[in-house]
Amino acid sequence: MSVDEGEWLAKQFEEHRAQLRAVAYRMLGSLSDADDAVQEAWLRLSRSGADGVQNLAGWLTTVVGRVCLDMLRSRTARREEPLGVHVPDPIVTPEDGTGPENEALLADSVGLALLVVLGTLAPAERLAFVLHDMFGVPFDQIAATMNRSPNAARLLASRARRRVQGTAAMPDTDLAHQREIVDAFFAASRKGDFDALVALLDPDVIVRADYGATPAGGPAQVRGAAAVAKQALRFSRLAPFVQPALVNGTAGAVVAPGGQPSTILGFTVRRGKITEIDILADPARLRQLDLPVLNS
């Protein structure tokens, strides 16, 4: 490959990088793993070149999908997934904008709650659903990625779709209304107002908390308005350190005592009630995230 061909190929790849990263993030739920998958796709392209490739975007998407499938299968084989609650890497941005890179990652409003559900799917189901339902990849192309028939890929996507639709209800889309509900939640927590907290919570609200290898912050999963309200009251001492932020494009918060982020909270608001709260408080993972500077 000549220098000019290499430069042209690199330029073409960069034009597709944002979408490839979005595919990998939905597949893996990890920003660093997504970057690794995209880099592997570039290495394969730079080695093989684009001769004979009629649809470079489709070819790259297929390659990233195959790399992610291998990574998911490797996780399962090595039992690397934690036994407790695992909250995917959140994308935290200031409320005044997300930036072009994160806009691509969040183009389909991929909230933490949806990523949690995707994480329960078998690797092949996740691949079929993400590529077809989120990125419109044809089933014959997906089938080639996983070495199955198009009909098998279609069935895998259908099975995954039923799981997602059954457990990941669409949240309210009005960001201002989301923020109003989330702010009211923290205000009630600060005041110790149990009844106000319960009124803001869906009766079947669920909290998922990822504290990492040495959980010390409380139970990993809490369900029900009364139980969640009681937990919120126990952590009211942290309320002064709450900074509003967008977490995967929806109203959320970062708890940062002394300016050091210790907890990220993502909220799902549906029909004016908080239905899910996803908490990442794993110190090791928080240190790896590229968190923005938020206003106090």
SSE diagram, text form:
Blueprint: H1 3-28, H2 31-48, H3 56-78, E1 92-93, H4 100-105, H5 112-118, H6 123-134, H7 139-146, H8 150-167, H9 175-191, H10 194-200, E2 201-210, E3 221-223, H11 225-234, E4 242-247, E5 250-255, E6 263-270, E7 273-280, H12 283-288
Parallel strand pairs: 2-7
Antiparallel strand pairs: 1-4, 2-3, 4-5, 5-6, 6-7
Q: Spell out the helices and strands N to C.
A: HHHEHHHHHHHEEHEEEEH
Whole-number average pLDDT?
87
How many separate structural domains? 2
Class by alpha and beta content:
alpha+beta
What would CATH call the architecture of the largest domain?
Answer: Up-down Bundle
Taken as a percent bin, the fraction of beta residues is 5-15%
* Helix share bin: 40-55%
CATH topology title of the largest domain: Butyryl-CoA Dehydrogenase, subunit A, domain 3
Q: Helical region count? A: 12
The stretches of 5 or more residues where confidence is low (pLDDT under 50) are: none
Give a quick account of the main beta sheet: strands, pairing sense, barrel closure: 7 strands, mixed
Please provide the count of β strands: 7
Gyration radius, in Å: 20 Å
CATH superfamily of the largest domain: PhyR, sigma-like (SL) domain
Gross morphology is elongated
Strand order of the largest sheet: 1-4-5-6-7-2-3
How many angstroms does the end-to-end distance come to? 52 Å
Highest-level CATH class of the largest domain: Mainly Alpha
